[in-house]
Amino acid sequence: MPLIELARKSLDSRVRGNDGKKISATAASQLSERRNKNQSERDTTQRRARQSSKQSNTDFLSPMYIETTGAPPDSGRPAIALIHGWAMHGGLFAPLVERLAARFTVHLIDLPGHGHARDDGTPLDPRALAADLVARIPDAYWLGWSLGGQVALRAGLDHPRRVRGLILIASSPRFVVGEDWPHGVSPDLFRNFGQALDRDFRGTLEGFLALEALGSPSAQEELRSLKQQAFARGEPAARTLQEGLVLLDEFDVREELPRLQVPSLWISGRRDRLVPSGAMPAAAALAPGGRSEVIAHAGHAPFLGATDQVAQLIESFVDDTGVAATARSAQA
Asked: Which residues form the active site (predicted)?
């Protein structure tokens, strides 16, 4: 499986989140060589994606797909909106939804270009999408997994009076490593995926699923679940996936986190091979009232391999923050 080997080599050259070491001179040299070799192709891909994303309009309500399940909206139960990661869709949350449905009104979102919204050509702009979604789903907790955390964070930062709290799973305020941020992956990881998509679209997506499952003690079972669900709603749009890779490469809201006005819970899997587990405690330390939880035997999708534990963390977080969130909502 050459793609997995490619991604794992790139991951090996990143700065590790648990030990806090900086990139070595050798790794830095290798990164520079790879960047120079692929610069022209990467620039073309990213320029097209950026041009598309700049066309967004925050006043436009896109036809994103939203499925509502669990407790009826008028039941008085708290609402929670779940936002999937790159190349996925809301159906991936099925095991978690089963655990949450009795207590929450659950809104499952398919972002533009994904799942049931795969024909939606709206640019993948977190700020615009957050504005759209809070208008449709006000007064809810927002859960973002991986790339979906970018949209959830923008909702909390830009619309604090309409968001009760944030739950970020395997998500980070910055996904790539930097001199002042040792909790990321090599910038080449997402760029290599972008190039691989052009060569072998389906194979690249399946390779990414394998990386998401790596590290979990139930990796084979998780991979089967991911493969069964990932394409159940059709393949995601290629253009949207390239936009998503640009976002993962460039996203950085660390300087904004100190002004976050809603409570936040950052959940990570210690064995995550895509987002270093150290990123979430570091992010929680930047956010007022932020808290972090590391699940010891979980990878990038802990809601699959540790569903009960993730559900319990969410329920405890809602119990602890519910009174404050209700008071804040009443003032809106």
From this structure: 146, 272, 300
Q: Can you give the residue ranges of every domain in the chain?
A: 1-15+26-332
Q: Which of 23, 93, 92, 19 lies closest to 276, judged by CA?
A: 19
Specify binding-site residues for substrate.
86, 146-147, 300
CB 45 within 8 A of CB 107: no
The pLDDT tens digits of the residues spanning 125-149 come to 999 999 999 999 999 999 999 999 9
State CA 257 to chain mean position distance.
16
pLDDT greater than 50 at residue 123: yes
Render pLDDT for 187-206 as a digit per residue (tens, 0 to 9). Answer: 898 989 999 999 999 999 99
Backbone φ and ψ of 227, nearest 5°? -65, -40
User: For the domain bounded by 1-15+26-332, which CATH number is listed?
Assistant: 3.40.50.1820
272 is catalytic: yes
Q: Tally helices (H) and strands (E) across the chain.
A: 12, 7
Rounded CA-CA distance 232/115 in Å is 8
**CA-to-CA distance for 309 and 289, rounded, in angstroms?**
21
Please measure the distance between the N-terminal and C-terminal CA atoms of the chain and give it in whole angstroms. Answer: 52
Bridge partners of 204, per DSSP, are none
Q: Catalytic: which of 172, 186, 272, 292?
A: 272
- What are 35-42's contacts with CB under 8 Å, separation 24+? 35/187, 35/188, 38/188, 38/191, 38/192, 38/195, 41/195, 42/191, 42/194, 42/195
φ, ψ for residue 321 (rounded to 5)?
-105, -5
Active site residue 300: yes
Residues at the binding site are 86, 146-147, 300
Rg (CA), the chain: 19
Marked catalytic residue, from 13, 146, 216, 225: 146
Q: Is 115 left (phi over 0), alpha (psi -120 to 50) or beta?
A: left
